């Protein structure tokens, strides 16, 4: 098998100069970054789920508190 990509990239050129340590470092860094993204996403998701849909202030839910209270006419 002289070609990594047929007639385009020979196998002698297709190898990487990175060491195993470089690869492990990159993978740990990427996994750590995605773990931070997961923690931030879970934090925000639980925060807004705890507040409930009325925190959106859309007025579509019967249990939303109205900012203007109606007083009976006198």
TrEMBL record:
GO terms for molecular function: electron transfer activity; metal ion binding. GO terms for cellular component: cytochrome complex; plasma membrane. It is found in: Cell membrane. Its main location: membrane. InterPro entries: Cyt-d_ubiquinol_oxidase_su_1. It comes from the Bacteria. The keyword Acetylation does not apply. Keywords: Cell membrane, Electron transport, Heme, Iron, Membrane, Metal-binding, Transmembrane, Transmembrane helix, Transport. This is Cytochrome d terminal oxidase, subunit I. The lineage of its organism: Bacteria, Pseudomonadati, Pseudomonadota, Gammaproteobacteria, Enterobacterales.
């Amino acid at each position: 098998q002289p070609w990594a990509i047929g007639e385009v990239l020979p196998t002698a050129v297709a190898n990487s100069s990175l060491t195993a340590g470089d690869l492990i470092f990159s993978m740990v860094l990427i996994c750590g970054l995605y773990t931070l993204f997961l923690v931030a996403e879970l934090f925000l998701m639980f925060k807004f789920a705890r507040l409930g849909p009325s925190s959106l202030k859309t007025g579509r839910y019967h249990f939303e508190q109205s900012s203007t209270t109606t007083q009976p006419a006198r």
